[in-house]
Amino acid sequence: MYPLPRVPNPQGGASLMVAFQCKTKRALVVGNNAIAASRVLALLEADAAVSLIGDQDTMCTELLYRIEHQQVSWLGEQCHEDLVDQHDLVFVCLSDRNVAKTIAMACRSRRVPVNVTDNNDLCDFFMTSTYRDQSLQVAVSTNGQASKLSNRIRRHIASSLPANLGDAVRRMGVLRQKVRQSDPSAAASSRRMKWLAQICEYWSMDRLAQLSDRDMEDLLEAYHQDEGYESLGTAGRIASLGAPPTPATITTTTTTTSSSSTRTGTITLVGAGPGDPDLLTMAAHKAIQNADLVLADKIVPAEVIALVKCDLKIARKFPGNADAAQQEFNAMALEALKQGKNVVRLKQGDPFLFGRGGEEALFFRKHGYTTDIIPGISSSVAAPLLTGIPLTHRSVASQFLVTTGTGARNSPAPLPTFDPHRTDVFLMAIHRLSALTESLIDSQKYPSDIPCAIVERASCPDQRVIWGKLKDIAQVLDSVGGSRPPGLLIVGYAINVLKHENHGDEGVANTLLTASGSCMQDAGNLLQLHDPENVC
After folding, report:
1. Siroheme biosynthesis protein Met8 C-terminal domain location, by residue (predicted)?
2. Who contacts 360 (Cβ-Cβ below 8 Å, separation ≥6)?
């Protein structure tokens, strides 16, 4: 196994932020003020068994209410050390530091975690400023440095979150359980994770929040069809995975008006570009606005989809289902054309660059329709540019090649032979990255240490860049939590041209690129993006 080329450099001073399950835990709160009341509320919402110590004569009204209604157990006015033994967590909310320190030392000697208000040196953990919407919780911590500022940051984050996010989380939790029950084997864990990840990534929050039980049944059927299971017979009910419901999708389309029956329909293949709506051409934007029906690829970002004002359907393309989804869309388009509608087939990137645009043009020509084509900016050229990688550079790369890592019916594609003066861009290759890199090194004479980069979701707000060498780029990708489609692989010495490094005999220019915006990302930071909650 090849060693990883870069290992994240730990930066001390952080806290370990976890979602601690308190349902079977006993918590002790010492204090009678408003801060103690907030600690009690947080613990009760976490289903902990809460005990309280404090003088009732000066106790805040909220705590008196909770004692009266037996929501907490009152243990008296003084905290004795033996009381610590009976609890799993202790919160000290006292203004007297000496008393607070005595309690904190008693907790530490018994290895009971303790939090002491306004005394960071006595704390084993800090409290966070938390936003909650049902099962969704967002926590902000300043590690005890600026608690008031953390509240402001939390409010800013909460105000920017989509509506119905809590409902979306709840419905996805139900769907996750249903998928597990329908396919419970341990071997299916990775398949479940990838399938659910695609739904979380490409569906709108509104649509997720409105998932009905019937929708989930249809989704489960799509899951089994995707993995080669026998059809259960109702797949036709979901023609548009990921599309938010619109009046046009709810009402029937079997009848047409007199004007549409005499009008000739039009079909336009539109390139949506790499992802940022600002990179749409004016012609593409105009076509989308004038359409009666938009048939969009699943990987077209939500920001572009939001521009669609008419009937919208999203392709049901999963691995192994591409041909069936293509036929379904062709049939939908043909039916709409017969009704005199303006149909837009919205494709990520450019329609004719591994977008099956030529096949669709031939299909519609066969049925008597001339296809209009609106080109789009391909990620094959946009992604390197947005990452600071020149595809060509004097004395380094005099040509570049765009190819695919996936052939017909999800099979391996023919691979090019290595050319040191060329930059290679592999589309649709990340899902078989290990096999691809091995083939390039073993069969196509690529140097194992040639620089390469993976660019995911180019031009989108969450664009991510992963740097490495060909021999270990697959391991680097795994180390940051796996892929976030869509992505592409760039291979060649031009990758290092604009990186501020000394490449010695490789002859690569030592040029510093000043990054602007958020497109450029440091590899060290990228390695910290691993998400431990990616196991379903």
Report:
1. 162-226
2. 269, 330, 345, 351, 371
% of the chain beyond a pLDDT of 90: 55
φ/ψ of residue 273, rounded to 5: 75, -170
CA distance 270 to 287: 8
pLDDT digits (tens, 9 = 90+) for 62-111: 999 999 999 999 999 999 888 899 999 999 999 999 999 999 999 999 99
| Domain limits, the chain | 26-127, 166-237, 247-377, 380-526
> What whole-number distance in Å separates Cα of residue 446 and Cα of residue 107?
60
Quick one: fold of 380-526? Answer: 3.30.950
Instruction: List phi, psi (to 5°) of 299.
Output: -85, 0
Enter the tokens of residue 518.
Answer: 């958020």
If DSSP states are collapsed to H, E and C, what string results for 101-169? HHHHHHHHHCCCCEEECCCHHHCCCCCCEEEEECCEEEEECCCCCCHHHHHHHHHHHHHHCCCCHHHHH
Answer for the pair 441, 471: CB distance below 8 angstroms, yes or no.
yes
Tokens for 481, please give them: 């939590």
What does pTM read for this prediction?
0.58
Q: Phi and psi (nearest 5°) for 42?
A: -60, -40
- CATH superfamily for domain 247-377: Tetrapyrrole methylase, N-terminal domain (3.40.1010.10)
Element (H, E) at 266: strand 266-271
| CATH of the domain spanning 26-127 | 3.40.50.720
3-state DSSP call for residue 520? Answer: coil
